[in-house]
Design goal:
6-stranded mixed β-sheet, 32% helix, 5 helices, alpha/beta, Rossmann fold, 8 strands, 240 residues
């Protein structure tokens, strides 16, 4: 268990002495669990399972550590960590709980936790001479309305992740689903927060969410393959 900066936010990660490779890509997937996802909660869980299972098939699977969480105002500090950073071999996606919709949207909390935990764990790995980069996905259908973390906290963590002091490189992706009324708000949030990219995945149909799962796994593989080059992946698609 580690803290994120000087905040009350924390996360879990595999003990470094238990890691067998010399370089890792840190992956975070944060999924909206607010009341407005009630109509497609099962599909969201299926998407999450598909994304992680697809990562297991990557040629770089031994060099990927994954953290999964949901976010809603019903959780302490807005986030519920399903599991911290762990190897794909340790993850049994059948154990992932159902998405239980409720509460409002602590988007700042989700992004702060996603990027901040990557920074904190990445720095610990780099201090122990591991090669490390990161990629984080925050998937939501609504705008910020319930966070304890501030926008300045989010921006500070986003800046840290691109200095090269905590990670070789970092990509953060804000993904909107069913966001007909919030796409512009989320695009503005992405720019203000310093998130790398906003993608509008449009309707939360089973087909679209399956494409989202594929997008996540391909993006993870691409970022992992970029490890050691000194920069981020150049092949993150702008659409899903």
């Amino acid at each position: 268990m580690m803290a994120i900066g000087g905040s009350n936010f924390s996360f879990r990660g595999t003990r470094i002495e238990h890691l067998g490779a010399t370089e890792y890509t840190l992956v975070t997937i944060a999924v909206d669990e607010t009341g407005s996802v009630a109509g497609f909660a099962d599909e969201l869980r299926n998407m999450l399972v598909m994304a992680v299972e697809a990562c297991k098939k990557s040629p770089r699977s031994d060099n990927i550590l994954v953290r999964v969480m949901t976010f809603s105002s019903t959780h302490a500090h807005g986030v519920n960590e399903i599991h911290g950073f762990k190897t794909l071999a340790e993850i049994n996606t059948a154990d992932y709980p159902a998405i239980v919709p409720g509460g409002m949207t602590p988007l700042c909390d989700a992004v702060f936790s996603a990027i901040g935990a990557t920074n904190a764990y990445g720095k610990k790995l780099m201090d122990d001479d591991f090669g490390v980069n990161g990629i984080a996905f925050v998937i939501t259908d609504g705008g910020e309305n319930a966070s304890t973390a501030t926008m300045n906290m989010v921006k500070d963590e986003a800046k840290k992740s691109i200095t090269g002091e905590t990670l070789e490189s970092m990509i953060s992706v804000l993904v909107g689903i069913n966001t007909a009324g919030y796409a512009n708000e989320l695009a503005n949030f992405q720019k203000e927060a310093g998130v790398t990219q906003f993608i509008d995945a449009q309707d939360a149909t089973a087909r679209k969410l399956a494409k989202l799962a594929d997008f996540v796994s391909r993006s993870v593989s691409s970022q992992s393959q970029a490890l050691g080059t000194g920069g981020p992946s150049k092949t993150i698609d702008p659409t899903i």
